[in-house]
Amino acid sequence: MKLFIVDAFTATPFGGNTAGVALIEETQSFPSDNLMQQIAAELRYSETAFVQQLGAAEFKVRYFTPCGEVDLCGHATIATFGMMYRMGFLAQGEQCLIHTLAGDLNVIAGKRVMMMMAKPQVIPATVDVERLHSIMGATSVNTSFPVEIVSTGLPDIIMPLDNVEQLYSLAPNMDALAQLSKELGVTGVHAFAFGEDGYTAHVRNFGPLYGVPEESATGTANAALTHYLHQHGIIASGDSNRFLQGETMARPSVVESTIDSNGTIWVGGECAIVATGTLLTNP
Question: Rounded CA gap, 110 and 98, in Å?
């Protein structure tokens, strides 16, 4: 099994959000869940994607964090299909069908990868906003917009803040956030604030329930934020959106998105291959 380390949502190595990618030969079976979990834990990245080609431009992809399997991971998908383009497996602009636990999705491979997200949903759950703000260490919040749970494959709490300074000053209680996430059935919190520098929004994402205290780039959560901002009249169908994430982690990432007139959301960006290797053991 070939292994790759890929930085997604950046064109520069050692930026963006790193994912492991395990390439399974067409003639091989998918590894056991236990082995995939061990590989993800060994690599220690927030997600590792396991990908197998099923046919012409058709793939099956599964995603594991160091703590367990998740239905979908945006940055690991960008890493996977950016790697496959750079390694010569796919052509620029080639459209692929991928089968995930979140459903069947389309991905456009190339130097800049764009992936179609699952149909957006606003989850009808009540969030104790005061408790959330206390857990997140928020000293000031944006009362112009509501706290909502939105999913485009993975559910996240969308948390608006007054300004970028407040966003960067967040200091979550990770244990309490993991407990809240478990109670609400969400991956974590995606906090955002508007700046004045041309980006659609600055964002931070926290998912300690899945062993990810903070992520430097999050495709699914920024897709959820795209739907949220569209629903609240901040962005329009067809807009090209750019979310800046990872600045507080010294791994700046740019996550691009657009929403079609039919509500379909696409998320994407560039990536850089950092290392390749081979799995030598097969427990």
Answer: 15
